[in-house]
Amino acid sequence: MVDFREEIIILNELSPQNSVELFKGVTREIPLREIKAILKEKPNPKKYPDEASKKEAKHLHEHHLFTLLGGNPQSIILVAPLLAD
After folding, report:
1. Whole-angstrom Cα distance, residue 43 to residue 65?
2. Which of 41, 42, 71, 66 is nearest to 54 (CA)?
3. DSSP secondary-structure letter at 47?
4. Residue whose C-alpha is closest to residue 65's, from 7, 47, 11
5. What is the Cα–Cα distance from 83 to 28, expressed in whole angstroms?
6. Contact 70, 15 (CB under 8 A)
7. What is the pLDDT of residues 49-71, one digit of tens each?
8. Overall pTM > 0.70
C-alpha cells in the first residue's frame, strides 16, 4: 500500500518592495532603462479594472504586474523568468 501524504505550507504575502526584490533576483539585475520601460506600460482598464491598476506607477513595486502577483512568492518565481527577455 502506498502512503500519499500531502503537506500544505501557507506562505505569507510579500510586501510590494520585497516582491520586486524577489522578482529581480529570480531573473537578473534589471537595468534602470528597463524599469523605466516597464513603468511606461499601462494596464488595459477593460482587462484589469481594479483600482490599483488605474493609478500611475512611479516605482516598480506600484506597477500593476505586482498587484496581479499579489505578493505570492511562488507566482513571482514562476512569472519572472518568462519576462526576462
Report:
1. 9
2. 42
3. T
4. 47
5. 11
6. no
7. 665 556 677 877 888 788 888 88
8. no
